[in-house]
């Protein structure tokens, strides 16, 4: 969202709150979630995945993007790991599929393959995963620890609701 859109949004919210207070006599507290700028972009992950591929398999240096179609195992494991890491970082499978010009079912398959490879301790899958993570660390610095953990079916605490509860506790 651009700076002008943010200013316009704040003005609209202020006007809405004032109108609501005048009509109903109740104060409103409206929370807008902060923009998460710490998320690694898919472009950055793409560059790091290609760098790991080039260093591991130099004969693939002619490949300029993960959008290329190839059935070679050495190439596909990097595409699978790209999908898995992006999904662990919080991107939806549909969004990853759109980025790679594939459908979400392909991304689901990739995530399952890497997850199964990690669970069964397949050294090829784990090595590729670690190479991409190391490239990310070298490229962007610190990689969030949450992409290294397994799925947790428990819902994560939503910071926006935590902020709302704290603010409401102040006014009560």
Model description:
- The protein has 172 residues and is mostly helical.
- It folds into two domains: 1-35, no CATH class; 42-148, DnaA protein, C-terminal DNA-binding domain (Chromosomal Replication Initiator Protein Dnaa, Chain: A, Orthogonal Bundle), CATH 1.10.1750.10.
- Helices cover 63% and strands 0% of the residues.
- It contains seven helices and no strands.
- Helix 2 (42-56) runs antiparallel to helix 3 and helix 3 packs across helix 5.
- The radius of gyration is 22 Å and the shape is elongated.
- The chain starts with a helix and ends with a helix.
- Mean pLDDT is 79; it is low at 152-156.
Summed up, the domain count is 2
Over all CA atoms, what is the radius of gyration? 22 Å
* Average predicted local confidence, pLDDT: 79
Strand content: under 5%
Oligomer: single chain
Q: Report the sheet with the most strands, covering strand number, pairing sense and barrel closure.
A: none
Corresponding CATH architecture of the largest domain: Orthogonal Bundle
CATH 4th-level superfamily of the largest domain: DnaA protein, C-terminal DNA-binding domain
What is the count of helical runs? 7
Give the proportion of residues in helices.
55-70%
**Sequence of secondary-structure elements:** HHHHHHH
């Amino acid at each position: 969202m651009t700076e002008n859109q943010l200013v316009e949004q704040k003005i609209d919210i202020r006007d809405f709150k004032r109108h609501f207070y005048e009509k109903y006599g109740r104060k409103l507290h409206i929370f807008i979630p902060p923009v998460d700028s710490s998320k690694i972009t898919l472009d950055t992950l793409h560059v790091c995945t290609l760098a790991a591929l080039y260093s591991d398999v130099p004969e693939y240096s002619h490949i300029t993007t993960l959008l290329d179609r190839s059935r070679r195992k050495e190439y596909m494991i990097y595409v699978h790991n790209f999908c898995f890491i992006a999904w662990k970082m919080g991107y939806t499978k549909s969004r990853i599929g759109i980025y790679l010009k594939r459908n979400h079912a392909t991304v689901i398959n990739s995530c399952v393959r890497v997850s199964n490879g990690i669970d069964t301790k397949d050294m090829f899958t784990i090595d590729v995963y670690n190479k991409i993570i190391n490239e990310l660390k070298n490229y962007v610095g610190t990689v969030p620890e949450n992409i290294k953990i397994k799925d947790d079916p428990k819902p994560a605490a939503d910071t926006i609701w935590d902020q709302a509860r704290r603010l409401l506790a102040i006014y009560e």
